[in-house]
Design brief:
This protein is mainly β and about 100 residues long. The chain has 2 domains: about 30 residues, no CATH class; about 55 residues. It is about 10% helix and about 35% strand. The strands form 2 sheets. Strands 4-6-7-5 form a 4-stranded mixed beta sheet. A 3-stranded antiparallel beta sheet has the order 1-2-3, with no helix packed on it. The longest helix is centred in the C-terminal third of the chain and has 7 residues. The radius of gyration is 19 Å and the shape is globular.
Length: about 100
């Protein structure tokens, strides 16, 4: 295992796999993944109270969500696990089947 500097971040290299250096608490790099499942979603209704039932990221809150056009997604195996999907992300990445 050897340590390298990748764009100013310390990484440990083992068998051609980048791993975070836990001593410097750096993160692993992002990779692209394709979904292999169906998403369960419904539209947000203006005025709907989501109090703690639906997770909303701070970035989405900063952009004015929840708002008309946003979608509420749920985990098909745990219907209590719900989160907001911003309108633009939904339109760019998903379509009804």
């Amino acid at each position: 295992m050897k340590e390298i500097d990748k764009e100013g971040v310390q990484w440990l290299v083992e068998m051609d796999v980048l791993q975070p250096n836990l001593e410097t608490k750096t993160m692993t790099e992002f990779k692209q993944y394709r979904r292999i499942s169906i998403s369960e979603m419904r539209p947000y209704v203006k005025g709907e109270i989501l109090d703690g039932k639906v997770s909303i990221s701070q970035a989405d809150k900063d952009n004015g969500s929840p708002k008309v056009g946003d979608m509420i997604a749920r985990n098909p195996k745990n219907h209590e696990d719900q989160w907001l999907v911003a309108k633009q992300y939904f339109e760019d990445n998903l379509e009804e089947i």
